[in-house]
Amino acid sequence: MTQARAQPKPAEQAGPKPAQIDRNGVLILIRSTLLALDQANKTGNYTVLRDLGAPAFQVNTAARLAEIFAKQRSDNLDLSGVAAIDPQLSLLPQIEPNGLMRMSGFFPSVPSQVNFDLAFAPVNGQWRLFGLSVALGQAAPVAPAPQPLVAPPPAAAPAPAPVARKATPERKPAQPASPRH
Fold it and tell me: Which terminus of the chain has a lower count of CB atoms within 10 Å, N or C?
């Protein structure tokens, strides 16, 4: 008996590839996303952050985003410095096999740095927010290794709905790395 199997498309076989985006485009995406989060945290109004996202990100209600970022809000986390400081990228913008553009890095500052992991989906010729993770960490010359933000879906299953992730303090390097929540 013979069985037919669907062959993966070339894009599914290949790993991530560098994104075709210039430095200014990268800075705009990072800064606008983190400033939108900062303003949402300061006002308690997450509708603009939600509405700036891709349709798959918009499955998060403004109330759900408020829950996710409640700790940052209660800690009065101030992300406004991202407007003036240049980010250091630990993961250059790349297109994942699932079509998302992902980048990770940090904004150095003393005594802590702002670590970020962002994913964007292409929507009508524009990159729109798909997922984000933001956390404070210790100032260091290099960012911690990025953890998976969104897992690519299995070949036959639909993609899971993206969600924003809570900020959690970075673990000390001596401890085993674990995904951020």
Answer: N
